[in-house]
Amino acid sequence: MCFLNHPLRAALGLFVLCAMLFAVAPAAHAAAETDAQSTLKHALDEVFATLNDPRYSEGANREEMLSKIENTVAVIFDYDEFAARTVGKKWRSFTPDQQTRFSKAFADLLRATYLERIKGYTGNGTTYTGQRSSTKGDKVEVQTLLDFEGKTVPVDYRMLQKDHWVIYDVIIEGVSLVKNYRTQFQELMTDGNKDAEALIERVQSRAEEVRKQNGKTE
């Protein structure tokens, strides 16, 4: 199974969380910020402070730094919602235990892929360009432009209001990460619960492969 096989989107996917780290809203729009944007920016400030903490300079206390970043991101990034949407309609055919194990495996894959690379981001940041809200007001798409390797790339965050605002999808150059993963996962899902087990195993093994590539085994 190929994960994010488009070169630019694959590279950008590695820095989806990094785009969050350097988000800057124009001052003129400050008064018009939504609660979703405020929630997002609060998380960004915390992560940015961690990245700039002198205790973590030159790779010192790396595991502690990644743990702090992961804890901050986990508050705003809804791994369970993301996981369910990548599976789509077949999510209902998963048993509760399978749903729990898949969500854990998928979160593990995202952490192995993104958080391990977060410290390598060297772009000039992100600027908010607008937002769209659902009719009920419980969903918001925050639109941004990311400076990435000399290119300006649209990266939008889809957020859902639960007990607080959470991210459930990221759109890179018009391509949804949820839909990207869903397309790939559907290749392994044609036979109900048996397919759920195959998918869980594949995602778990892929997370392990990524950790080994990063020189990190757990």
From TrEMBL:
Keywords: Signal. Coiled coil: none annotated. Residues 1-30 form the signal peptide. InterPro entries: MlaC/ttg2D (IPR008869), Tgt2/MlaC_sf (IPR042245). This is Uncharacterized protein.
